[in-house]
């Protein structure tokens, strides 16, 4: 073990590769906070998280002013203790997105450091369940895309070996959503998975009506049909429809996930490292879900989630949304529609330091050292 001596902060903003719209918003940009931790032996770990366009400056101030100074002098390998100490230090602002996003950047850096010191890839150190996992694609299923283009993208994805596509729903009328999904099912046949995502866009009555209208199309799931904190509504909907319910990208605590699992509000959990507060709580949610026989299909961050889906027994899918190509030298290896967990020590993300430095926002490029 070695004490933490230095923490470097930076943030870059990445534009989406395609126009991304859903039932309630557009994905404007990925604000990407970075935390790089160096210990007394010179070992380095780099972590990150993200926003979808707002809040990045608040995350960076929380990191710089309150969280990262508490890392100096700590033993880097005591990840569990550090995570809980930092969460308690911000107990007045938890549980919520800003704190979880900040914690995630620190926690992923500590895991990267641990894996590098052990000369082991994350997927092995975190569990080692399998070396690869299937992908489904979201990138061609955004809400503004017409049915013909949805089908074209899904056909191309299947040619690459993908076994499913996600289609956004939440059009003004039931018939419009049905037309989108009907076109997909007719073109793709019964052997291809179709996931749908309402992005919290429905009220309870609307969600029930849409689920009933979509029942004939054998959907893999309906994602976030209701507001994420409407647990009772999700329980009610899950009892009313045979279509699996998926939640998780807008949950920020392991207790939220535990409530959904225990009460039957979801049968797919989409726990997101960047939203739950890092790898440490992510693994807890995944193992808890296994006890309920619930699959883990994490939201976004495919370059990181590939390793974690491969780490746990109940990891089912990696969501294909490429976003780090501009700041990485090599991307996630996807062959035959399967994401292969990186075998390099650490998170396995090949950061392009020059590209990150060139895009870093000067205001948030910060160094923290003992006595500084």
TrEMBL record:
Query: Which GO biological process categories is it annotated with?
Result: amino acid catabolic process; carbohydrate catabolic process
Residue stretches making up the Mandelate racemase/muconate lactonizing enzyme C-terminal domain: 147-244
Q: State the Pfam families in the record.
A: MR_MLE_C, MR_MLE_N
Give yes or no: UniProt keyword Magnesium: yes
Keyword entries, A-Z: Magnesium, Metal-binding
Q: Where are the transmembrane segments?
A: none
- Co-factor(s): Mg(2+)
Task: Check the record and name the CDD domains matching this protein.
Answer: MR_like
Q: Which SUPFAM superfamilies match?
A: Enolase C-terminal domain-like, Enolase N-terminal domain-like
Record keyword Metal-binding present:
yes
- One GO molecular-function annotation for this sequence? hydro-lyase activity
Q: Which InterPro entries does the entry mention?
A: Enolase-like_C_sf (IPR036849), Enolase-like_N (IPR029017), Enolase_C-like (IPR029065), Mandel_Rmase/mucon_lact_enz_CS (IPR018110), Mandelate_racemase_C (IPR013342), Mandelate_racemase_N_dom (IPR013341), RHMD-like (IPR046945)
This protein is called what?
L-alanine-DL-glutamate epimerase-like enolase superfamily enzyme
Taxonomic source organism? Palleronia aestuarii
């Amino acid at each position: 073990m070695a004490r933490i001596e230095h923490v470097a902060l930076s943030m870059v903003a990445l534009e989406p590769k395609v126009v991304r719209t859903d039932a309630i918003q557009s994905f404007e940009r990925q604000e990407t906070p970075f935390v790089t931790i160096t210990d007394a032996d010179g070992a380095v770990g780099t972590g990150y998280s993200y926003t979808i366009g707002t809040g990045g400056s608040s995350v960076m101030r929380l990191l710089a002013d309150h969280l990262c100074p508490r890392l100096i002098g700590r033993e880097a390998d005591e990840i569990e203790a550090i995570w809980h100490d930092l969460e308690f230090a911000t107990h007045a602002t938890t549980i919520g997105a800003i704190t979880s996003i900040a914690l995630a950047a620190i926690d992923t850096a500590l895991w990267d450091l641990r894996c590098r010191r052990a000369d082991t890839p994350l997927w092995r150190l975190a569990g080692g369940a399998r070396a690869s996992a299937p992908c489904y694609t979201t990138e061609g299923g955004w809400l503004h895309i017409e049915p013909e283009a949805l089908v074209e993208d899904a056909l191309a994805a299947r040619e690459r070996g993908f076994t499913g596509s996600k289609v956004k729903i939440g059009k003004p009328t039931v018939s419009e959503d049905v037309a989108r999904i009907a076109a997909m099912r007719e073109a793709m046949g019964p052997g291809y998975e179709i996931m749908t995502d309402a992005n919290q866009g429905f009220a309870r009555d609307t969600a029930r009506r849409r689920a009933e209208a979509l029942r004939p199309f054998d959907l893999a799931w309906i994602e976030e049909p209701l507001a994420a904190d409407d647990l009772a509504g999700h329980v009610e909907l899950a009892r009313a429809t045979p279509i699996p319910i998926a939640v998780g990208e807008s949950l920020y605590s392991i207790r939220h996930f535990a409530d959904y699992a225990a009460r039957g509000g979801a049968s797919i959990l989409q726990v997101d490292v960047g939203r739950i507060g890092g790898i440490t709580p992510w693994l807890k949610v995944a193992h808890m879900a296994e006890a309920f026989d619930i699959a883990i299909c994490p939201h976004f961050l495919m370059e990181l989630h590939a390793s974690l889906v491969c780490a746990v027994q109940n990891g089912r899918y990696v969501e294909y949304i490429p976003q780090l190509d501009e700041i990485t030298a090599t991307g996630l290896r996807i062959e035959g529609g399967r994401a292969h967990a990186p075998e390099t020590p650490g998170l396995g993300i090949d950061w392009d330091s020059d590209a990150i430095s060139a895009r870093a926002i000067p205001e948030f490029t910060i160094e923290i050292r003992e006595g500084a």
